[in-house]
């Protein structure tokens, strides 16, 4: 019975004892300060020393020591022959200490271990203390002790398995807590209590001299120094430098350096928060050049530190919402520059394109950044960065002749090209984030002096993927419906994986409109991907289609719980959809079919719209996860595209039926003319039967449109002529070319095909809901046109949904401005529709304004010529043919199997042209896009996602298309 009471006492009393806030009471009694509201918020011994002074700290140590001793003695009283319970009592004490007192319990364990086994405590003290004093590495010291005490325990008590396991568990627990709570020793010693400053300097573990050869933390030494340290470790040519950490005594560093006239130093700021993605702080702090003596070095350090508190620097931080932190000082060997300057890996003026912008002058780099002289300006086109040996960045050994550039001056053009390559290579190192670098060339070596994000070019917006989901120009009403649905569901999916780490991420910023086109926030998605443990190429995948490497094992392990949750969703996807289809989609669609929008009042129409949006939100979840699941399974099980049957996809099913009907029409009327087909079919009974079947087909698929995700585009039900033209064009397609006509087709096993079929069923539900939504808005527009609120058909699609609600509510003030608002937006939409090409990437939230006269962009990016274009392989096969560039499927020229079509994107309107062509090249889309699926249905080689294809390729050019490799080789032109 004694042991039962012992267990209860340990697991109840010890956590309560650990959570008893004695330190907080002591500090508040002596100083009136509340530790939970100060510094890191920890209630710890170090916090008591820091905020309460020496007396508070000593009493805090005594109180925590007594807790640890009491826990061990309590366990010993109940279990005198089982010492493992003494360590279990310390575990319970530490857990209470962390959960209630927000501390690690280090002092509790130290003194508890002295009572538990003084030999282990003494050996750990000697080994750990000597190592820390010599190495002065705080992190190494902490975790070294956590390794030492269970190891020494095991060596001294080899036969006591329970004690060894308990010691290991105690070490793991404390190590886990260290990772969870902020470290009070990271606070600046100079801002704590004066009597504790020396103690803090010692236990922080700061070395007397910190150099760029060390691995540096930007939270301690600023982004500038930490970035240069990282670049130096990667092998980039960074001048040797040293860092004075905030609060450290500068004298040891000053005495260690020997500046002279022949070897001058430069003293620069590295403030916490400077040169970060949030703020560059360029020119806000002091830089001192030509430091040639120790006295000058001492003064330069003081000047640089003092610049942190200059009025303009304080105002800069205030306006950008930055908190006051601290100033580290960076001291480097000064490069005696023959030529120097700055380079922007992306042009900050045009904000798009592949050009590197460079400013340079003979002499020191400071001349360029100071603004006192007008530098020479250059632009270099780099479409892609090949492997660059950063150790051979000198004019004599690296010759770059294949890059296009403009600009001229005194700086050697070969050097300018090398600088451009260096800038782009560093951008690649930082996941595609544009970089502003400072460089200098000393006559032999090109040196990298600084690299920081170009904050004005963030975030990065990409058309990749967005152009496939919503390919064309988008009206405001469509966007106001699609954006919250898509962003909200993506946010839900990301939250499944990230859990609490998703807090602070604004998923509504996932997408935006530029030039009336959809763009995704590649910067935000890249950040999310890295949080999810995906590899560093995530952003490059979005912006450039780069291949993924294997993610780090540590990241994968961290995200295992979230990935398992997502896997659970994927495994239950079919079952969940079937349940939602029975419970929500089928009843909802049936109810919508019972009453036409023409029968509803404006209030009822709004209620119907809200109901459809509720169903669409649920359907959007499946419309995102089903294609992802299909693509993932196809990749995992290595199923070839030609083994996939897309007949469940409504567009494909409709096109197959149209093709089958056209084939039937050819059989009964071989001389049928495509231009007069419907008139000729009307003349015979079999022909009229075909026309009746055509009307039934139109009734079944009337919810489809040429752009399925855009409710501003009329449906087939509204514009039957679109389907009629498809039928007439299908009459010209050769028999047997459609995939369903081929007898050798074999479906893939269920594990992948099931998800493909699910994707088709989801698309059908989603498309039907969008059609119903469109018809409601069209009816509201008819009512508004009758009342004079709107002027012409289509006006309602230039309003956002909340604005439509204001019109229905008869908001007089808003309605008075309605005509002007719609006209302005329609005019902007028409201007945007004429823009060609559209930038694939836009840097920053204020994209460049197109040139009013030409409809293009001023100062266009340079395009490096290439005879080989690359894209995504979408339909296998090789073909050599003649290019025809099409921007509009309704203006089809003569096409045959020697024709290779080049299109901006593909939807169902392009199908007849694709079926008659020999190959397909599209600017956007992937292997699961509509165009890729249709190309495979017809057995036509296709390459998708060929950037700017409609502008790089010209009518009449001869090309060789390889749908297996995803390449387009330009052979020549007529």
Overview of this protein structure:
Strand 19 (899-903), helix 33 (911-916) and strand 20 (919-922) form a beta-alpha-beta unit. An 8-stranded mixed beta sheet has the order 16-23-22-18-19-20-21-17. The longest helix is centred in the C-terminal third of the chain and has 38 residues, at 750-787. Helix 2 packs parallel to helix 3 (45-52), helix 18 packs across helix 24 and helix 23 (573-594) packs parallel to helix 29 (750-787). 49% of the residues lie in helices and 12% in strands. The chain is an alpha+beta fold. It contains 35 helices and 23 strands. 44% of the residues are buried.
Summarize the helices and strands and which ones pair or pack.
Blueprint: H1 2-19, H2 22-31, H3 45-52, H4 54-78, H5 84-101, H6 106-116, H7 118-135, H8 138-156, H9 161-180, H10 197-203, E1 210-211, H11 218-233, E2 241-244, H12 251-256, E3 265-271, E4 288-291, H13 294-306, H14 311-319, E5 327-333, E6 339-344, E7 355-362, H15 366-370, E8 376-381, E9 404-406, H16 413-429, E10 435-441, E11 446-453, E12 460-462, H17 466-469, H18 476-498, E13 511-514, E14 517-521, H19 522-531, H20 538-544, H21 553-558, H22 560-571, H23 573-594, H24 602-637, H25 650-668, H26 677-681, H27 685-700, H28 720-730, H29 750-787, H30 801-808, H31 812-816, H32 818-834, E15 841-843, E16 868-870, E17 872-875, E18 878-885, E19 899-903, H33 911-916, E20 919-922, H34 930-938, E21 942-944, H35 949-952, E22 957-962, E23 967-973
Parallel strand pairs: 18-19, 19-20, 20-21
Antiparallel strand pairs: 1-2, 2-5, 3-4, 3-5, 6-7, 6-10, 7-8, 8-9, 10-11, 12-14, 12-15, 13-14, 16-23, 17-21, 18-22, 22-23
Helix pairs in contact: 1-4, 1-5, 2-3, 2-4, 3-4, 4-5, 4-6, 5-6, 5-9, 6-7, 7-8, 8-9, 18-22, 18-24, 19-20, 23-24, 23-29, 24-29, 25-27, 25-28
